[in-house]
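Why do we bother with a discrete structure alphabet at all? Because it lets us treat a fold like text: something you can write down, compare, and reason about line by line. To make this less abstract, here is a complete entry for Lipase. Read it the way you would read a sentence in a foreign language you are learning: slowly, and without expecting to understand everything at once.
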Amino acid sequence: IVILSLFHSTSAHFSTDFTQYLDDTYGVGKRQYLERNDLQNRGSFGGRSRHGEALARNPVVFVHGVAHVAGSLNKEMTFYYKSRGYTDAELYATTYEDPKGDPLRWIHYTMKCDHVKRIRFMIEAVHGYTGRQVDVVAFSLGVPISRKAILGGKCVENGEEVGQRITNIVGTFIGVAGPNVGVAPIVNGISFALCAMSPLIPICNPVDGLFSGFCPFKSRFIDDINFHKHYEGGRVYSIGSKVDEVVGHMVCGDVSFTIATTFNLFFHKVNNYFQTFKHSGDVQIAMLSGSSF
């Protein structure tokens, strides 16, 4: 089992080759939209070290969780992936939000249309750049955002069109500690329907937030991503914990982190929210390779 230490100062940026591809294909503005250099080299990573470098496996797009950026937990996980044979040409990420160093800023997050469109564009750009299907490994709030990015359709808060489903370009989808049916944090063994009690907090709002726990009602975003089944990729997996102090375990009778019609479900029974991601590198890679775990 891989164990990672979290250092928010980890450097991350796109390679020169990927930068050139984005400029040539989409224009400088679109490249900057993904690159997030406003985050001082922590906003993105990925790309070939030289033009034409071959890929031995599908590229992975990591999607970070709440209050994180590409250059934090996801970048740390790439070190383990590299120890298992992956290269920089096969590992990618962008940042859809910016915690700005505020540990409480997460309460202001929502799953807004711009986040969805940015992650969708990242998946499409990596697919075009590599010419291969893309594997997606998403954590926490990045799971429902990624699912909507792949599903497409209209954004729930403004009706803006995202586009058609892009299931065909996603090989494997892995959701880790994702609030797929909402959140019910576990504190001292007791589950709390946080968003049912706090619907005015942005992250808990009933439109593009995580409103849940007032059974059977959930946010429009949660209902939207769960109405359709098995659109996330060719193989779909979810990883979660029974003692998750952030997402929780059960919400209105459903396991919080599961995705309908997942091929397999792996429980980290003793790991909390962050540990579920940080300790599951070996399981993630087994899922990506189609091996047993």
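What the structure line is telling us, in plain words: The first strand starts at residue 60 and ends at 63. The radius of gyration is 18 Å.
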